[in-house]
């Protein structure tokens, strides 16, 4: 749009739409204010140990949020990532202990998570089940299945020191999970921004019918996005199991809400066709700094579940406002 075509007056709600379009700038401002406020109340916020703890927690969420961003851009969602995360940790721990091989344990865990993503994708694209319903069903299957599995198989402690390095190790001054998350983020960023696959995901999410008429295979694109999300859950699940030094069936409770809250807080539309990984990164940072602030300020830790719920409501409302502004 040229400057000559920009209207001189705004309709009611246009100011909110403008604010929503500048969500990344707003998030950066919120991040700065949060860091200042928490550091004033608790100077240990900037301690080296606390910064490392924040980065590790951000890494876990960002790895899965990269895949979730792709899914939401394509107009789908996966609510089973939390349950899958816990199951993955148990599978990885069990296979690692049984074989004595970290490589085999990691491969089994990631393969399991990929199969879960493939299952979700097939249910959605072949059976035409709404992704919200389909992945809730998968979540329930996994939540029950992991307890059946752990009764028979899993040893809660691993016997390979290298497994610890996956979650607690360092490469120079940087924790290994942060390096893994950075690599995942860069690959996903390049994929969405500079590849045909990324452009096709935006097209399918924005208008699936038009994308089909243009010759795009929407089902295949969505299936790939589900599998990618599953594989990334596998990576995050292994890191979490390493940090906990155990395979815990309840480890992923609420994780899916944090991931989705971070993604939509970053500006990704629930209706598809809009979103950026930079926004997702900012959303993850905001949520995890808030979580960290709750801990170091010694507030009730149940607030850590309250905040994502509030964020989902506000971010969804902003998405509605943005879409109405675009329509006007």
Any overview of this molecule?
The protein is mostly helical. A hairpin with a 2-residue loop joins strand 1 and strand 2. Residues 1-20 have low confidence and may be disordered. Helix content is 75%, strand content 1%. The protein is globular. It has a domain at 52-252. The chain has 14 helices and 2 strands. It has a two-stranded antiparallel ribbon with strand order 1-2.
Please describe the structure with a list of short key phrases separated by commas or semicolons.
14 helices, 328 residues, mainly alpha
In short:
The chain is mainly alpha-helical. It has helices at residues 14-21, 23-41, 48-73, 81-99, 102-125, 131-152, 161-168, 176-194, 196-206, 208-213, 218-244, 255-265, 277-296, 303-327; strands spanning 170-171, 174-175.
